[in-house]
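User: Structure with zinc ion, C-alpha cells only please.
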Amino acid sequence: METAKIKLYNTMSRSLDDFVPLKAGEVGLYCCGPTVYNYQHIGNLRTYIFEDVLVRVLRRAGFKVTHVMNITDVGHLVSDADEGEDKMLVAARREKKSSLEIADYYTQIFFEHCSWLNIQRPDIVCKATEHVEDMIAQVKQLEENGFAYVSGGNVYFDVSKDKSYGKLAKLDLENLQAGARIDVDAQKKNPLDFALWFTKSKFENQELQWDSPWGRGYPGWHIECSAMSTKYLGNHFDIHCGGIDHIPVHHTNEIAQSECATGETMSNYWLHGGFLVTNKEKMSKSTGEFLKLDVVRDRGIDPVSYRLFCYSASYRGELVFSWEALEASDKTLKRLKQAVLSWKEECGGVPSKKLSPAAVELREQFDQAVYDDLSMPRAMAVIHAAAADSELSPADKLALLLDFDSVLGFDIEDWKAEKLDIPDEVSSLVKQREEARANKDWAEADRLRGEIQALGFAVEDAASGSVIKRL
Ligand code: AMP
Ligand code: ZN
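Assistant:
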C-alpha cells in the first residue's frame, strides 16, 4: 500500500525530518507509559493525546503501526536520578494497600480516562513487573559488554564507557559532572552513573523483589523501557515518544542502555510532547497541584472538549490551561456537533460518496496539516473553513468531517441529537409558520420565527421540513 509523506520533528536531529520507516509501510512505536502510583493529571493526558494523534496520523497515511506502551509499576524512584523511594511504595503506604493493588487501581483508572478521551488502546501494553527477566538479561548483556559495574550490592551503568552518552539531550558532560552533587550515592564511580539493579540499596523494605545474578532486588526505572522496547519492537525501531521532561535523564539513559547492550541505534525518531502549564508552572503530581479528568467532567464539560483544547497548540509547545479556554473549547465542540447534526438532517444522513473539487481541496489541506508534524491548529482551521463554506453541500461537509475523524478522534459517527423537549406552544407556532410559508406569506413566517425565538428556540428550513433547535 502507498503511504503518504510525513514530516516529524526529531529531537535527536533538532529538525523537521521526512519520516522514513525501517521497513516500508510499517512503524514500530514505543511510548513511555504512566507510573501507576497516582492519577494521571490532565497534563499527563495531553502527552497521551499527542501520541494517539501520532498513531492515528500514521495509520491515515497508510502505515501499519505497532504501538507499544509500558506501565511502570516498579522501580520509578521519587527523583528520576535514583534518589528517594520507589513511588509505588510511597503510595502503598499512603493508601494502606499493596504495591500491586495500587498499580491495578491506577492502571484501570488511567485506561478509563483514556477511553473518555477516545485515546485508542496501544497494541501492546506491558507491565514492568511482568518483564523483570528481560531486564535482568539486558543488564547481564551490559555487564558482558563492559558497561556495567557492581558497587555496594547495586549494579550501575558506567557513563564514562559510553562515548555517545547524552547525545539526545546534547548534555555538556564536563560541566554536568563538575556541577553534580557528589553525595548523591557514594556507591557510584561517577555522579552521572545510574542504577540498573538495586539489591542492598537504601530501600531494603522494597515490597517487590526478584532473584537475580547480583542478589535479590529490583530493577532501576530506565531499564524497563530498554528491555521491553527491545522485546516487542527489536533492537532498532522507528519512533520513541514521551513528555519533554524525559529528554535529559530517562530517554538519555534508555538510549545508553539499549545501544550499549545491542550495539545498534535504538530509535530513529524521538518525539516529545510539551507541557501543560498553569500560570507558567508545569502541572505536576509532586506538588499536589493537579487536575484530574473527573473534575473536568464534574463541571459538565465533555472530556472530548479537552482533546479539542489540546488541538489549539502544536503538541511540541507549552499549552497554558485555564477554565475559560477549556469552556471555549467545549462551546466549539458543541457548535461543531450541532453543525454536523444539521448537515446530517439536510442530506438525509447520507454523506457524499464522491467529493466536489472544493471538498477535495479541503481534504488535501487537512492532510497537509496533519502530515506536517501533526499540525492540529491548522487542521482545525480547515474544519472551520469547511463548516463556514456556503458553496459546499451538507453531504460534502458530512463526508469530510467523518473522514477527518480518523485523526480528530471525536467519534463523530456516534453523535446524535439530544432529545429535545419541545413545548406544545413552540410546536404549534412552527406548524403555523409552515402554513405561512406554504402560502408564501413571508412576513408572517418571519413574525412567527421571532415568536419562536422569544421562547428560546430556533427554526431552520431543511429539505426534510422544519428543524427545531434550542437557542
Ligand atoms: P509519569 O506518570 O509521571 O511517568 O508521566 C506520564 C507522562 O506524562 C510522561 O510522558 C511525562 O513526560 C508526561 N508529563 C508529565 N507532566 C506533564 C505535563 N504537565 N504536561 C504534559 N505532559 C506531562
Ligand atoms: Zn520510558
